[in-house]
Every structure is written in C-alpha cells, then in structure tokens.
Amino acid sequence: MTRFKKYLAAALGLAAVLPGKALAITPDTVIITSNTYPTISNLKPSNYVAGAINLLLGVSGIISFIFLLVGGIQWILAGGDKEGTEKARKRITNALIGLAVVFSAYALIFILQALFNIDIIRLNLQPL
C-alpha cells in the first residue's frame, strides 16, 4: 500500500505542475513572421526531389542505427561463442560504415551548398 501512495503522490505532483507549464506560453511568445511553407501554387518537381532525398537519407540513417543495435544485441547474446561474436562484429562494422556514408552524404550536400552557393537538392543555381 505504501508503494501505491508513493506513485499516487508522484502522479498528483506532476498533474499539479503541468497546467502551469502549459500556461507559460503566451501568444506574445510565438512570433510568426511569414508563411514560408510550400503551398499548392509554388510546388515544383525540385521540391519533390528534395523531399525524397531527405526522406531517403533519414530512413537509411535509421536503418543503419537499427542494424547497429541488432549487432550489439547479437554480440551480447553470443555469450563468448567465436562464430556469434564474429557475425555481430561484422554487422556492427557494416552498420557503422552505413552510418558514415549517410552522414558524409548529408554533410557533403551542406558543405557544397555553403561553399559554392549551390542547392544540390533543389537544383537551384544562385549567383555568386
């Protein structure tokens, strides 16, 4: 019964604090300067390409991270077995290589954009 009372006290304490946090944001806090989101009238094929590239980079990064976690779990569950640890080591190595490729592709896009003022994703060339 004492454990229940502790949990109840913690829940009531959190419930008492949350409305105050919600009221801390006033309309003056949020300032919207302009509508920068694409609308139906200004959607271009380059926006679709940019969305697809960003989606592929994000999904491939998540998949690589999942493979890294699976390799770690395999290593733990191998229990000293040579073959199991070798499989786990290969999976972890391949996942780290995949993460390095994804992050370097993402970094390369932003470095080229910053250095040469070229938006590779949207295929926009801007004057120097």
Automatic annotation (TrEMBL):
Spans traversing the lipid bilayer: 48-71, 92-116
UniProt keyword annotations, A-Z: Membrane, Signal, Transmembrane, Transmembrane helix
Signal peptide residues on this chain, from the entry's feature table: 1-24
Cell cycle as UniProt keyword: no
Keyword Amino-acid biosynthesis in record: no
Protein name: Integral membrane protein
Organism in which the protein naturally occurs: Candidatus Amesbacteria bacterium GW2011_GWC1_47_15
